[in-house]
Specification:
This protein has about 350 residues and is α/β, with parallel strands linked by helices. Helices cover about 45% and strands about 15% of the residues. An 8-stranded parallel beta barrel has the order 4-5-6-7-8-9-10-11, surrounded by 6 helices. The protein is globular and about 60 Å long. The N and C termini lie far apart (about 45 Å). The chain binds flavin mononucleotide (FMN). Flavin mononucleotide binds next to helix 1, strand 7 and helix 12. The site of flavin mononucleotide has 27 residues, from helix 1, strand 7 and helix 12.
């Protein structure tokens, strides 16, 4: 009951607080205009082959909800939107359900309404390997997201305080489950140091979920009726988390850019910075809740059209070419690049 209330409050407060107060810092990144793009729009490819299935565009409705009957309808609608637009979808954390057995329908409804789609399961890093496999089976998942959310836990009065042993447990989960494992943040970003540690342990799928979008420290403070000052700005902005990945990881990885992405310009920049896919949660939830599934599907189709237009302007036929298009860095992002010891000129030319 307590968990069900928490899920509903997360949705309510995510809608009330929106994005921020910090920025994604995509505004510090500019494309350079190409006056001679030499490209036929018919040759632009957005579709992508992922886990043996085809996506119409490299977009993902990222983890939002599940675990109580009260959100079954939201998940049914999200699955319908993903199916209609040909994009991937992740369910919200199944950790409570694999522990208690309650609320399974709110997840199974996703596979029922999108039988051929790409669906990601989602658990906490505290799940046992068996619980993780149960979560995968529940939605016949194509991959499993393991979410990391220490800042959120710390602001939650009932949250976890000890984070020791998570990496070892994630290795146990990865060894046991029969689908790829994606390591995911929930809005505070993955930094260079964590990418490196995870990559050294053989993880190759990441969802950066940086700050500047949905803000769980703020949501949890609201739920706890507590004040929050500096923590409202905690986390690595999405653009910086992508730069850390580009400068740290080698080519053999799959990167989802998420956190505050709500238009095609940010999506184009994220893909140009080295992401394979763009995840969105807050903006889709808002359209679905305040309007309807049609509004969410129309938004996703518009993003696809506009992403094509950016690629046309830049003369890029596919996402790989987008990663070679020159970028300009300014403002705090340039400070970030300098402090991290990255070579701005190298990152400007090619990200991976
Ligand atoms: C209401 C709500 C609930 C969420 N629950 C989960 C969750 O259970 N597991 C998870 O990995 N991420 C969860 N997230 C985080 C999102 O998947 C995403 O990483 C984050 O919101 C940043 O994306 P955005 O700025 O586009 O919303 C949730 C997001 C929202 C809005």
């Amino acid at each position: 009951m307590q968990r069900a209330q928490r899920k509903l409050k997360h949705i309510r407060f995510a809608l009330e607080t929106g994005f921020g107060p910090g920025s994604t810092h995509f505004e510090d990144i500019r494309f350079i205009h190409n006056c001679l793009p030499e490209i036929n729009p018919a040759d632009i490819v957005l579709s992508a082959d992922l886990f043996g299935k085809m996506l119409k565009a490299p977009f993902l409705i990222d983890a939002i909800t599940g675990g109580t009957d009260a959100v079954t309808e939201i998940n049914r609608k999200l699955a319908d939107v993903a199916s209609r637009t040909g994009i991937a979808m992740a369910v919200g954390s199944q950790y409570g359900t694999v522990k208690s057995g309650l609320g399974r329908n709110s997840y199974t409804v996703v596979r029922e309404n999108n039988p051929d789609g790409i669906i990601f399961a989602n658990v906490s890093a505290l799940a046992t390997p068996q619980q993780a496999q149960d979560a995968v089976n529940m939605v016949e998942a194509d991959a499993l997201e393991i979410h990391l959310n220490p800042a959120q836990e710390l602001v939650m009065p009932e949250g976890d305080r000890c984070f020791r042993g998570f990496l070892d447990n994630m290795l146990l989960i990865r060894d046991k489950v029969d689908v790829p494992v994606i390591v995911k943040e929930t809005g505070c970003g993955i930094a260079q140091e964590a990418y490196k540690l995870l990559a050294d342990h053989g993880f190759t799928f990441f969802d950066c979920a940086g700050s500047g979008g949905t803000n769980f420290p703020v949501i949890e403070a609201k739920r706890a009726v507590a004040d929050l000052d500096e923590m409202a700005f905690w986390g690595n902005p999405t653009a910086w988390s992508l730069l850390d990945a580009a400068a740290t990881l080698d080519n053999e990885y799959f990167l989802i850019a998420s956190g505050g992405i709500d238009n095609a310009a940010k999506a184009a920049k994220a893909l140009a910075m080295g992401a394979d896919m763009v995840g969105m949660s807050g903006v889709i939830l808002k359209l679905l809740s305040e309007q309807d599934s049609d509004a969410a599907a129309t938004f996703i189709k518009k993003m696809q059209t506009e992403l094509r237009e950016y690629m046309l302007l830049l003369g890029c036929q596919n996402i790989k070419e987008l990663r070679k298009t020159p970028l300009l860095f300014s403002g705090q992002t340039m400070d970030f690049i300098l402090c991290r010891g990255y070579d701005a000129a190298v990152l400007s030319k090619k990200r991976r």
